[in-house]
Write a structure and sequence with these properties.
The protein is of the alpha/beta class and 289 residues long. The protein contains ten helices and ten strands.
């Protein structure tokens, strides 16, 4: 159930109808970007929006292909999402904002910061994509993504709630945090007729037989934006050593290794992450645009 301080709206972005949540009337803009798979703005960020809105104008879009936003039949590449973010900010009249992204959303936030450093006040990377050259079991992942097994997995998860719960355990450390409400939300998302299409397209644009197409690790020294890296200590999707390397390469960055977290760190006891984010975002905060 949505907090009455959180509002929902639609906006035209490049001719596409984009759904987003917004909260907070004062403070600098803060854009929260969700992950891939069958994620959405609300599924990942629901418990963080209201607390963060106490000092920021918080904007949380459903990325194209996800949630209640349009799901066009296009190639969902990283470049597509970088252009989307630029147009989303322009549509809202925002010249500068802080960005926080989970997984895919982290890759978008990082890529945007490298493209438009003057437009990003602060950067938060949560179990972020874009920090690694390969996936764990990379060639097996490649074969999975480029064969019918990919589509079959979505078909099976739509039809078996227990299997869906088990799949969430790969990303959420504490089984108690896979609540009936979360399971209901993910189940609704995966039953969308277009569920998985955007992420499958993104994966097929990114995976190469010998590595990943978008690996920003060699450019991290270019990031001069104040940066916070949050990473689960049991994340096998983006190994801890990649986050530690990012911290070493981004001058002045802050790094927090989150205990007892997997890849979906936001869903395991978010109150700790809220406190960390409020402290980081509040440091030398300006008025924003």
């Amino acid at each position: 159930m949505k907090n009455d301080t959180i509002h929902t709206d639609f906006i035209d972005v490049g001719g596409r109808r984009i759904h987003y949540y917004h909260a907070g009337q004062s403070g600098s803009p803060l854009v929260l970007l969700h992950g891939g798979g069958v994620d959405s703005a609300w599924i990942s960020w629901e418990e963080l929006i209201a607390p963060l809105a106490a000092g920021h104008r918080v904007l949380v879009p459903d990325l194209p292909g996800y949630g209640q936003s349009d799901k066009p039949d296009v190639a969902y590449t990283l470049e597509f999402y970088l252009e989307f973010l630029e147009r989303f900010l322009e549509a809202l009249g925002i010249t500068r904002a802080s960005l926080a992204g989970l997984s895919l959303g982290g890759g978008i936030a990082l890529g945007f910061t490298l493209q438009h450093p003057h437009r990003v006040d602060k950067l938060v990377l949560v179990d972020s994509y874009g920090l690694q050259s390969r996936l764990a079991y990379h060639k097996l992942s490649y074969l999975y993504v480029f064969t019918p097994l990919n589509e079959l997995s979505y078909w099976l998860l739509r039809r078996n709630r227990d299997l869906l719960r088990q799949s969430l355990q790969a990303s959420i450390y504490d089984p108690a945090n896979i609540t009936p409400q979360l399971l209901d939300a993910v189940e609704r998302a995966i039953r969308d007729p277009f569920a998985g299409r955007a992420f499958t397209s993104f994966q097929r644009s990114e995976l190469r037989w010998n590595g990943l197409r978008s690996d920003f690790s060699s450019r991290l020294h270019e990031v001069h934006t104040p940066t916070l890296i949050l990473h689960g200590d049991h994340d096998v999707t983006v190994p801890v050593q990649d986050a530690e390397r990012a911290h070493q390469r981004i001058a002045g960055s802050q790094y927090v290794l989150l205990k007892n977290r997997r890849h979906w760190a936001l869903r395991d006891h978010p109150e700790e992450i809220i406190a960390i984010l409020l402290r980081f975002l509040g440091e030398n905060a300006g008025d924003g645009a």
